[in-house]
Amino acid sequence: MTSLSQATLKFFFGTMGSGKSTQALQIRHNLTSRGLHVLLTTQLDRQAGRVSSRLGVSAEAEIITASSDLFVLASQRRTRAGLDAIVCDEAQFYSPEQIEQLARVVDLLEVDVFAFGLLTSFQGELFPGSQRLLELADERSELQVEARCFCGRRATHNARLVDGRQVYAGALMVVGDTGDRSDADVVYELRCRFHWHQAKWEHEGHQLALPVEPASRRPMINTPIQSDAEVRT
User: Fold this and answer.
1) I want to staple 191 with a disulfide (CB 3.0 to 4.6 A). Which of 38, 43, 180, 195 is the partner?
2) Is 90 labeled as catalytic in the residue annotation?
3) Mean pLDDT across the stretch 213-225?
């Protein structure tokens, strides 16, 4: 009887600015410092061929393309140099088929996989790769570094801005950053659910109807109460 793998597929998710790449690099460092063989992979990072953190830390990484077979890649690396774990940054950009390949890496090669990525796109919908990770992962964890909207609320959405205006159509895989808008054609801004929706409503020409003030502050209409005798007369 074939024994079940003790390896696991773990998915860590958060908004931009929540420290995904930083934690991916930290896990890689922790594993390699124990003498384990780790493969670091990425798609569309700020630095080609590397995983980079906004804190300035980076490490060389294997670039994953749409044609990459992660099971074949892991099998070859395991045979050639040994492989104990794969750390995947920008995993939201992996195709559902590639997420399936990662699951096979865990189950058939007994290699741990740590995947880091965004849950939703600038359109407010699950990335296909992230959806498949949610469906297949042994463990799912939201990163606890909370990024904030400009209003101060917890950020839940990644808004894509072109020339300062939030957009809702276009390719999912567009490199941008949350830095100064003046030196980038495409930038991203972290927003809470309300402010992400507010810009969308304005874009669609909807008018948001909200109470002018709470019901408790609205003026009361005083109607005289008549006595029974007055009613009978």
Assistant:
1) 195
2) yes
3) 46
